[in-house]
Amino acid sequence: MTPLILQRPALLLIVLIVVLPLAAWLGTSVLHRYFPLAEEARENYKIVQGATLTLLALLIGFTLSMAVSRYDQRKNLEEEEANAIGTEYLRAELLGGEAAAQTKALLARYLQARIQFYVVHDAAGLDEINRNTTELQAQLWANVRDAAKAQPNPVMALVLAGMNDVINSQGYTQAAWINRIPVAAWALMILIAVFSNLMQGYGAHGQVGRRVLLLVLPITVTLSLTLIADIDSPRGGLIRVAPLNLLSLAQSMPANP
Q1: Cβ pair 21, 214 in contact under 8 A
Q2: By residue range, what is the domain housing residue 62?
Q3: Disulfide-capable partner of 222 in 16, 39, 122, 186 (CB 3.0 to 4.6 Å)?
Q4: Is residue 257 assigned to a domain?
Q5: Is the pTM of this model over 0.90?
Q6: Alpha-helical regions (H) of the chain
């Protein structure tokens, strides 16, 4: 279960914009006061500080790459799902008669349910859409299954395969939306970010240097982590996958199939 703070990037932004500057302030006001850094130890300290900041930068870079790859996967699967539904809508003509009309009408309803999956935000609405999707899938499969039993030929096998692609594509999409950056990776990255800001504050000396370091690094890291969380959050962030291909397919379908 993904924690709420990672599902709501705005909440993560608020927390980090408080915690990271506080860590830098503790370093410069508390640690520096009670455990002053000797000048002869400053060179070694800079090496450790540089290594810590480099590790943080690498973690942010790798995590951003993970988030972007997941975002691209969700986009590609939306396109594949639209293609599968559109192809099966055309193949439904092969059923003939009432079965064809009923299957096309169900596919049109199914398409609307899939569009709603991408735009809904609340958990209750999402649960209702998932239930509706499952029911429509059962009805669609029953339609093509019965037709294939009545006419077991290669044409019906093609229709069955197309419906199988429709159902599978929904499962792949569902799995991609659940696939998030592991919580342990987030915890490690935030912990290293806190220590990095603590060390920056501890190593700062001089009033101007302290003020700058207490603001620049915490804000930079906060914005970076918030961006990653936004891309990685399918519903809670500003950067979302829009069902453009599904909407285009819905517009191309006749009003009364």
Answers
A1: yes
A2: 4-252
A3: 16
A4: no
A5: no
A6: 4-7, 9-26, 32-34, 42-91, 97-119, 123-150, 154-178, 183-203, 207-232, 244-252
